[in-house]
Amino acid sequence: MVFSSLIFIYIFLPMTLLIYYITPKRFRNLVVFIASILFYAWGEPYYIALLLISVIVDYFGAIIVEKTRADKDKSRFIFVTVLVINISVLFFFKYYGFLINNINALCGTSLRVKALPLPLGISFYTFKLVSYMADVYLNKVEAERNFINFGTYVSMFYQLTAGPIGRFTDLKNQIINRNETIEKFAYGIQRFLFGLGKKVILANNLSLIWNNVKSMQYGSISVISSWIGIISFTLQIYFDFSGYSDMAIGLGQMMGFEFKENFDFPYISRSITEFWRRWHISLGSWFKDYIYIPLGGNRRGKSRQIFNLCVVWFATGLWHGSNWTFVFWGLYYGVIIIIEKLFLLKYLKKIPKIFGIIYSMIIVTVGWVFFDSESINKAFSYIGIMFGAGNNLMIDNMAKYLISSNLLILFISIICATPLVKRIIMYITEKKKTPGIIVSVVISMAIFVISTAFLVYESYSPFLYFKF
């Protein structure tokens, strides 16, 4: 089940909200926990046991770590053991095939790989578990004694499958005692619908352009077509993932939770360093707090900082998928960020903002080629077409067709990827009061009706980050 499906919007969500609000406050976490298990069971019935076992292991593991804190060796042993279990489960399901295939390629062996479907959201809930165990071990938070509360934190359906990666330190008080208000509920509905529009109206239609271009023989793609294709994917992945985050934040608001923002208009960044402060914020802060800083961060000199950044960006790339294209994509950003930190950033701050944005967008757009290519060689071949390295035509009839038939969706998407629309809506609602509220409601209902119309005739279209 996905948020952008008719069964979720018209059946699962209304029933969950109804049961949630007629249930006494002290049992509402149980409602969220059961709803989350049912939500997960819809798409991954065989992996419910895996999710529940992970919850049980970390629940008891954290309590034991806390109780044995006086014995540092024992506490550390339990912490490391639980950590190894969490990471091993993730590694097995996500990288087992990748590892065997590389062993076969390097050693000439013919070890067979049994295809295993990736458990939905395993990367996200594993990171939540790891951060929880680390925070308990470091005495940043007390271990949760209420199993239902802890299970709710790990499995809450609005964060389970694609984040944002919520920290227990941020959510503990809200899990124990949160206030549901009409204002939060109304904002949650609006935020959910805006995210739905991003996914269904923009991202899904942009995906048609990109899929059309990348399915062509590379020798027949014109330079202009290659740029139209990858620009479409650049916009698609932003609206797909930020749309999911909006929907998750909105769903949380409907039940009284307040989650941190996960995107802050990353495509207006003036540098790659700034881009990664604005893109997938919860993941970036996770790697910073649990890998970069424990390794020493920038406290041990430039050489060690560069090494730490390389480790973080290698891990960031590998986290996104079991393919060398993702590793290359991660290191690609690592190298650029290292260059920026060494000297380039101070020059980027001095040039006009528009040139910084152009610089960032070219690097980001090229990066998405590696991200969505089957191999590094294919990625370089496509990039070669973009920059006229081959004998491909500059423009052809296909390019003209793509422009004429998709100009409106591309224009709307580019505008919506900037803060302009948000600022206009905020101005209307804050300055015009009642008329502004009416306009906001009308916009939300229009998005809802249009999205429903698309979903009636659309096949299953999961969010891109479900596979990570």
From TrEMBL:
It is a multi-pass membrane protein. Keywords: Acyltransferase, Cell membrane, Membrane, Transferase, Transmembrane, Transmembrane helix. InterPro entries: Ac/AlaTfrase_AlgI/DltB, AlgI, MB_O-acyltransferase, MBOAT_fam. Coiled coil: none annotated. GO terms for molecular function: acyltransferase activity. One of its GO terms (biological process) is alginic acid biosynthetic process. The chain crosses the membrane at residues 6-22, 48-65, 77-96, 116-138, 218-239, 326-344, 351-371, 401-425, 437-457. Its main location: membrane. GO terms for cellular component: plasma membrane. It is found in: Cell membrane. It holds the Pfam family MBOAT. Belongs to the membrane-bound acyltransferase family. This is MBOAT family protein.
